[in-house]
Amino acid sequence: MTTTPPAPPKNRTLMRPATVKKSRRASTTWIPPVLVALGIVAIWYVVSYVVLDEKRRFLLPPPHEVFTKAFFDPTVFGDIMVALGRTAIVALVGLAIAIIIGVAWAVAMSQARWIERSTFPYAVILQCIPILALVPLIGFWFGFDYPARIIVCVMIALFPMVSNTLFGLQSVDKGQRELFQLQKASRWTVLTKLEFPAALPAIFAGMRISAGLAVVGAIVGDYFFRRGEPGLGSLISNYQSRVQSAELFAAIITASLFGVVIFILFGWLGKRVVGKWYDFSAN
Questions:
Q1: Closest CA to 256 of 282, 229, 236, 281
Q2: How far, in Å, CA of 242 to CA of 236, rounded?
Q3: Does residue 150 contact residue 93 with C-beta atoms inside 8 Å?
Q4: pLDDT single digits (tens) 119-152
């Protein structure tokens, strides 16, 4: 009577490398920012309780007071969330306008050198002008409500879209461009089939930068244009004038987290669109 030999144990190590690699990648992605955040909180506590005396502690309240007096207070938290919604509308509308103008402007410059020579210096000037110097003029010309806030948002968020899109369109591989020329492809075909797809990684990188700047622009515009429904900028100004430090820090943290969420959202969107042929996570 013959007995079948026992089956050799399955080599589990063949299944583990992918899982180990994925877990290591996740740990290297999230652990360093968490450690830095813990370090910031620790320094915050040290400054609040060691550097500042008790009479001046209101200048930098400890982190737990920010939560107890602001985030855990239904009234304050409700005001912050309502203001965040209004700021988000301005930021998203301004970002959408900046993306449309920036891409169209960059495409026009990539198609005609004289347009690039004539207009690109003004894009640089727009980026270099202190926006706070233009805010009063924008208020005089366009009023002090939502249109003025959106204009400030567009002005701050526009340049990264223009520069990144133009860089992507002009960075097409020379061999691929010559191949299209050999096939006598039209300018429209070259733009839609070669240049624009190749520029998508740079375009989405510009969107990520402009998304954060759009949040800044929305808050700056709201900080100076206080007519209409107030957003986070107006709320920050009110807390500052009333020396409500805990509420002020809560509003600032909320604005920062909103900018981070928008940045991550466009990073995820870019990875979904171009990740099949480009390692978007490397940027």
A1: 236
A2: 10
A3: yes
A4: 888 888 888 877 777 777 887 888 777 888 888 8
Residues 176-214: tens digit of each pLDDT: 777 877 777 778 888 888 888 888 888 988 998 998 899
The one-letter code for the residue type at 132 is: L
User: Cβ atoms within 10 A of the Cβ of 28, count?
Assistant: 9
Residues 235, 218: Cα–Cα separation, whole Å: 13
Identify the residue whose tokens are 């300018």. 187
Residues sharing a CB contact under 8 Å with residue 224, sequence separation 6 or more, in sequence order: 135, 136, 139, 233
Domains of the chain, by residue range, sit at: 33-65, 73-282
Q: Which CATH number fits domain 73-282: 3.40.50.11260, 1.10.3720.10, 3.40.50.300, 1.10.260.40?
A: 1.10.3720.10
Indicate the angle between helix axes 196-224 and 74-111, nearest 10 degrees.
140
Tokens of 233: 């900028």
Per-residue model confidence as pLDDT tens digits over 55-80: 777 778 888 888 887 888 888 888 88
Tokens of 191: 């733009």
3-state DSSP helix/strand/coil percent for the chain, to nearest 5? 85, 0, 15
Q: Closest Cα to residue 33, out of 269, 240, 264, 194?
A: 264
| Nearest one of 92, 25, 46, 2 to 281, comparing CA atoms | 25
Q: State the angle between helix axes of 196-224 and 146-170 in degrees (0 to 180), rounded to the nearest 10.
A: 160
Check residue 242 and report its DSSP letter: T
State the Cα–Cα distance between residues 205 and 4, nearest whole angstrom.
61
- Distance between alpha carbon 19 and the CA centroid of its chain, in Å? 30
